[in-house]
Specification:
Length: 324
């Protein structure tokens, strides 16, 4: 089969298309013909290994698993002998950041992993970007125990995580103040934000309002700068470590003060989370934003674009290779 392969850490150009062996599912696994995947910031993080910590999961000196791609949507083409939950022909989507493998014509998933059947009305390209930004947003929203009636500020409301966060927070009945640039104001309003701040015109850290949670989905701010925006026991969450890698440390010490605090939850995902995101999609409460499409042959360009840090929502890669 064809796959986008990388054998060393580095820039987008370390990835190239190659012919590799088609995987064989074990007893508890399904083999998926991948129709659509995404290139996202998780792929970029593991590919570049800029944050050294990622190497403890992906290999200290070189990648253990040579095919990236964590989000997938496709069709099950064979199943292991003990698989009970899925059948050949099922259209499925989900997430794998343990072994990755979705930047390929075929991949395997354990049947009890983060995988579910595709919501009825969705195409493969629409289903592929449901989980990456969605589960990061969900982890942070759950950690902060966001609930109906609260006031939440979301910075970076147009990223994969931010655009999912706006919709999920709204589905819980909280009020959202979203921060983005001029060109995305209408999009963010359409996602459900009650108030939108254009960061090119106004510094959100200086507004005269108080929030239960400030969720910086692009990690561009700091607790120090956002503290004045928080209510008495308000919570600050960022998707980045912070300019001095201070956020995990602040998450340990600020809860001891009994006042405003930082959370830095370790993201997790399981099948129940995928089913929850699927339910949100089916009930019209969550629709992943898609910026643009590439093909697997254009994977390096997809990486280059995602690494500009300017994608709006998600970048989908259609996998079937037609020119063969
Ligand atoms: N290391 C990892 O494994 C990993 C995995 C996932 C995510 N993350 C981190 O999580 C963060 C979010 O990821 P993502 O995929 O959701 O992001 P993304 O999609 O790459 O975010 C891009 C969006 O961020 C907005 N943005 C850029 N600069 C901004 C600023 N100064 N203020 C407000 N918005 C700004 C841009 O919107 P406008 O056009 O409106 O400016 C753009 O639409 C990133 O920092 C990423 O590195 C890391």
């Amino acid at each position: 089969m064809k796959a986008a392969v990388y054998t060393k850490y580095g820039p987008p150009e370390v990835v190239s298309l190659a012919e590799v062996e088609k995987p064989t599912p074990k007893a508890n696994e399904v083999l998926i013909k991948v129709h659509a995947t995404t290139v996202n910031r998780t792929d970029c993080g593991f590919r570049s290994a800029v944050y050294f910590i990622s190497r403890f999961f992906s290999g200290l000196f070189k990648p253990k698993y040579k095919i990236l791609g964590n989000e997938f949507a496709g069709e099950i083409v064979s199943i292991g002998q003990s698989v009970k939950m899925f059948r050949t022909g099922d259209k499925v989507f989900g997430y794998n950041d343990t072994r990755f493998g979705a930047h390929a014509e075929f991949m395997i998933m354990p049947e009890t992993g983060p995988i579910a059947t595709i919501p009825e009305s969705l195409s493969f390209s629409e289903a592929a970007p449901i989980t990456e930004g969605g589960h990061y947003a969900l982890c942070d929203i759950r950690a902060a125990k966001i609930k109906s009636g609260q006031d939440i500020l979301i910075n970076g409301a147009t990223g994969a995580i931010g655009s999912a966060a706006v919709q999920i927070v709204k589905s819980l009945g909280a009020r959202v103040t979203a921060v983005c640039s001029t060109g995305n104001v209408e999009l963010v309003k359409a996602l459900g934000a009650d108030t939108v701040i254009d960061f090119t015109k106004e510094d959100f850290t200086r507004i005269d309002e108080k929030f239960d949670v400030v969720f910086d989905a692009v990690g561009k701010s700091s607790f120090a700068k956002c503290k004045p925006l928080l209510k008495k026991k308000g919570i600050y969450i960022s998707t980045e470590l912070g300019y001095l890698s201070q956020n995990p440390f602040l998450a340990l010490i600020t809860p001891l003060t009994g006042g405003k605090r930082v959370l830095f939850p370790i993201p997790t995902i399981n099948q129940a989370d995928v089913l929850y995101l699927k339910e949100l999609v089916e009930s019209g409460k969550y629709k992943p934003v898609i910026d643009r499409y590439y093909t697997l042959i254009q994977i390096v360009e997809a990486y280059q674009y995602v690494e500009t840090g300017q994608k709006t929502g998600n970048v989908v890669v259609n996998v079937p290779i037609k020119d063969r």
